[in-house]
Specification:
5 helices; two-stranded antiparallel ribbon; mainly alpha
Length: 138
Amino acid sequence: MNTEKISSKIASWSLMFVGIGHTITDLTSRKTSSQNDFIIKMKEFPIEVLGSNATIFSFHQGFSLMMGLLLFGYGLLNILILRNNQTSPIPVNIVFFNIVICLISLVISIKYFFIVPILFIGIAFLGFTISLITKRIK
């Protein structure tokens, strides 16, 4: 396997790991008493969206679980692209798209999150960037 595909594979696995880690952390982390108080307040704040009733907490929880799933799925989709194109190079438009998505995700992570997602998304960005650079050198 060449550098282009190895770096894309590392990037893809990095996205999968951050997705799995996010979901596991969301579902298993213990809450402090102040966090529990805030969750209660979120559950007491109803919202209506397109005729459906929900709470701020249900939206927060749903978005959090969806984030983990989508990060995992995005990484897995890239792994499947690599697996199904073992003899041909990765299309430039896919590599470039991955770079753009990871760069935007990295900026968002730096602004809003902590070191773990920043690190994993940074690895993904770097991996896809190396993949593009090595593709251009050939």
